Structure formats: structure tokens, C-alpha cells
């Protein structure tokens, strides 16, 4: 797949309910990170490209200060309704999250199939934005989509390319062996590699 997805493309997919990347359940990696103490109440967390994923309302319900950002107004309307129904609150930002400049840095970034959704030429901008968003010592909870076949989500994130993108001058990496693959239930089992990178 070579075409770039614009705001219109993503919005169209949500409006048509054509969203095969959705897991229909809380991500097991997020639950494992919760058990490991990554999501303590009061922490500020941003979910770039949150789409309709249920982790946003869940984390808000766990007492975190959550920001969700997406290009799609349909996805954000869904999130607002889910929050209202659950009686939780979160900040929702509509538009290009790469242009987001928070007044106050975040403790955590929860990255669930966002990097693989942006064109590779924007990855450098994303890495710079992540550095800007996270406080020193903040954690990027990364789910890098691994695939070597065409098809969604659009752009795979091989681990060697991720090492280049997130240089050790700015990021503390776990051992590669510590990354955990989580096969996706509805994308032909394509795995996301879960790992925590620490902002220096
Ligand atoms: C593959 S989907 C993942 C959605 C959600 N994280 C999930 O796992 O269900 C990628 C999401 O990123 C959003 N997106 C893509 N480019 C974006 C950008 N530049 N700024 C904000 N959101 C963007 C899309 O609208 C879409 O909701």
C-alpha cells in the first residue's frame, strides 16, 4: 500500500465502520502495563491517534489525566459518548496530533498502532513531538506493528528501523528480548511488539 491516508481517509473509515484494526477489547499489553504500575492515578497520559479504542475511557476511569487525539471527528464523538456514559472525563483533541504542544508535559504516551498509521516520512516529526511531550524520565509505552506483508495498518515498524528513529541519545531502550509480541486478533495475527522506552 503506497497511498498516504489523509484526514478524509480515516474519517471515512470510521464513518463507514470499516475499522479492522480495532481489537474489540482492552489491549492485553495495556493491562500488563497497568499491573506493572505504569498507569498510576493522577499521571498525565496522551494517546495519539486514539480512534475509538476503549483504553481511553478505561484509563480515565482509573484516575489518570488522559488526553486523546485524533484526526477523526467521528472517532472523537464516539470517545466523548463513551466517557459520558461511563461518567469519566478526558481531554479530546481533534486534528493533527503532530502539531500538539502541551502546556504541561506528559508522564506517559500510550502508543497503540499510531506510528504504523502515519506515513514514514513523518516519523522523525513524531519522534521529536514525543520528546517534546514527555517529561524527562517519562515513558513511551510502544506497540510497534510488525508485518512484512501488504495491508493494514498501513506502515509496518521493524525494530531495527525503530532503533534508528529513537536514538539512544534521547531514549533508553529495553533489551530487544524484553519486547513482547501480541498477535492482533483480526489483522491475520500480525503482532504488535510491546516495549517501554524511557525519555532521557
Ligand atoms: C490504526 S488506527 C488506531 C486507532 C486506535 N489507536 C486503536 O488502536 O484502535 C490509527 C489512528 O490514528 C489516527 N491518525 C492518523 N494520523 C493522525 C494524525 N496525524 N493526527 C491524529 N490522529 C491521526 C487515525 O484517525 C486513526 O484513528
Could you characterize what this model shows?
This protein has helices at residues 7-15, 28-35, 55-61, 73-86, 123-133, 159-165, and strands spanning 44-48, 65-70, 91-94, 106-112, 134-145, 171-172, 180-183, 191-199. By secondary structure, the protein is an alpha/beta fold. The chain is built from six helices and eight strands.
Overall geometry comes to globular
Topology, number of strands: 8
Going by CATH, the architecture would be 3-Layer(aba) Sandwich
| Bound molecule kinds, no repeats | S-adenosylmethionine
Unreliably modeled segments: none
Structural class: alpha/beta
Approximately what portion of the residues adopt beta-strand conformation? 15-25%
State the distance separating the first and last CA atoms.
35 Å
